[in-house]
Design a protein that fits this description.
The chain has helices spanning about 30-40, 70-95, 115-125, 140-155, 185-190, 200-205, 220-225; strands spanning about 10-15, 45-50, 100-105, 110-115, 130, 155-160, 165-170, 180, 185, 210-215, 235. It has about 240 residues and is of the alpha/beta class. Strand 1, helix 1 and strand 2 (about 45-50) form a beta-alpha-beta unit. The chain is globular, with a radius of gyration of 17 Å.
């Protein structure tokens, strides 16, 4: 059996990852497929934490300037991540994976409050931890949440799951001449304004020497390939 390249990871999922072909909401079949991929790497002995977005339900940034206050919109987006986290937890538990949803916004009836030491203890007990509610503050994205939580729990890497197979010089779905990068430095991402993660999260990863791997979630077995150290996607480090 191949040895995993990482002991503890943070998997960053967009809310759109759960919607499948529906274009909105949550597709239970797609969610279950993602849960099976997570179970596969958890069973390899890897500590798995997940940060999930809420764009499939509500995208706060898209409402700014259209009559909805930015702070209100951001909090609504955070609540959307809780819904997605509960859906992923349900799918994981259907696969026999003990899971804990931890939220930055207290709602004790549906999720545990985020406490760093408790999160680490869950990981030590081989539970998958799903972080929701963003950072608990407006003006910060779930990308920043992923970077912050990864640093706090001592993760080895952030796995940024997307619908394309890495980072490109332009949107490859719109520009056929877009160039794919196999590896990038943090500062290059910021200077080129590449849409890997927002500048705040990239800066946090750079300060803490936390690598990011961007890959296509929807290619079969992609998460497993990444954690085994296969050269897929784009690596951001240094």
């Amino acid at each position: 059996m191949e040895k995993p390249a990482f002991k503890r990871i943070v998997l960053k999922l967009s809310g759109e990852a759960l919607q499948g072909a529906k274009g909105h909401g949550i597709d239970p079949v797609v969610t279950l497929s993602i849960a099976r991929q997570i179970k596969e790497i958890r069973d390899m002995g890897i500590g798995v934490a997940v940060v999930i977005g809420g764009g499939n339900i509500f995208r706060g940034a898209g409402t700014v300037g259209k009559g909805l206050d930015r702070v209100t919109a951001d909090y609504m987006g955070m609540l959307a991540t809780v819904i997605n986290g509960m859906a992923l937890q349900d799918a994981l538990e259907k696969e026999g994976v003990h899971t804990r949803v931890m939220t930055a916004i207290e709602m004790k009836e549906v999720a545990e409050p985020y406490i760093k030491r408790r999160a680490i203890r869950h990981l030590e007990k081989k539970r998958v931890v799903v972080f929701v509610g963003g950072t608990g503050n407006p003006y910060f994205t779930t990308d920043t949440t992923a970077a912050l939580r990864a640093v706090e729990i001592g993760a080895d890497v952030i796995l940024k799951a997307t619908k394309v197979d890495g980072v490109y010089s332009a949107d490859p779905l719109k520009d056929k001449k877009a160039k794919k990068f196999d590896q990038l430095k943090y500062i290059e991402v910021i200077r080129r304004n590449l849409r890997v993660m927002d500048a705040t999260s990239i800066s946090l990863c750079m300060d803490n020497k936390l690598p990011i791997i961007v890959f296509n979630l929807f290619k079969k077995g992609s998460i497993k390939k990444v954690v085994l150290g296969r050269k897929i996607g784009t690596v951001v480090k240094g």
